[in-house]
């Protein structure tokens, strides 16, 4: 998967592209459908103001949120896509700095650990996973997130479920 990463203010200087690459590498271990080398994803580290505007325009929710995902492929098309061919845009993911930083502080985790969790979460949405469809879907998605994060040394962000 190729990532097109943009880091805007107010995100602090950091190794955000390296963090995103680690997230992708771990995620493709637990969700191999994302390992197609044709996939391209736009990843935007931006402000609450920008995510609020995107959320209002595209999801009709008038508030900021921690991460937004905009899939470009249906899950069936993603699964059927051959590995040979031109790049294919899987979708866009945007992270809101102020919300991410506030949530990280509330959880007592680093901004980096929370951001990598949200990158994994957002990429799973691009692959067609959706925790809002019901409890079974939420458990499945959280298990994949937890397993991917464990591969890069990030603690279970949910902490209250057993995914073994």
Report on the structure:
This protein is an alpha/beta fold and 164 residues long. The chain has one domain: Metalloproteases ("zincins"), catalytic domain (Collagenase (Catalytic Domain), 3-Layer(aba) Sandwich). Helices cover 47% and strands 17% of the residues. The protein contains six helices and four strands. The chain has a four-stranded mixed sheet with strand order 1-2-4-3, sandwiched between helices. Helix 1 links the parallel strand 1 and strand 2. Helix 1 packs across helix 5, helix 4 crosses helix 5 and helix 5 crosses helix 6. The chain is globular. The relative contact order is 0.18. The mean pLDDT is 93.
Question: Briefly, what is this?
Answer:
Its main location: cytoplasm. With 164 residues, this protein is of the alpha/beta class.
**Straight-line N-to-C gap:** 27 Å
Architecture, according to CATH?
Answer: 3-Layer(aba) Sandwich
Please list the strands of the largest sheet in the order they lie side by side: 1-2-4-3
Count of DSSP H/I helices:
6
Radius of gyration: 15 Å
CATH topology: Collagenase (Catalytic Domain)
Tally the structural domains: 1
Shape: globular
Largest sheet: 4 strands, mixed
| pLDDT averaged over residues | 93
Give unreliable regions as ranges: none
The CATH homologous superfamily is termed Metalloproteases ("zincins"), catalytic domain
């Amino acid at each position: 998967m190729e990532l097109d990463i943009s880091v805007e203010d107010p995100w602090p200087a950091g190794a955000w592209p390296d963090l995103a690459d680690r997230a992708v590498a771990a995620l493709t271990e637990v969700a191999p459908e994302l390992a197609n080398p044709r996939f391209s994803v736009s990843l935007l580290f931006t402000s609450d103001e920008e995510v609020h505007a995107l959320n209002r325009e595209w999801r009709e929710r008038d508030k900021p949120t921690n991460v937004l995902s905009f899939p470009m492929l249906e899950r069936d098309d993603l699964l059927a896509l051959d590995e040979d061919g031109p790049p294919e845009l899987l979708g866009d993911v945007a992270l809101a700095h102020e919300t991410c930083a506030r949530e990280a502080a509330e959880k007592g985790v680093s901004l980096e650990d929370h951001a990598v969790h949200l990158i994994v979460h957002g990429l799973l949405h691009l692959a067609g996973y959706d925790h809002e469809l019901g409890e079974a879907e939420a458990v499945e998605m959280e298990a994949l997130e937890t397993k991917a994060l464990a591969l890069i040394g990030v603690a279970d962000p949910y902490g209250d479920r057993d995914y073994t």
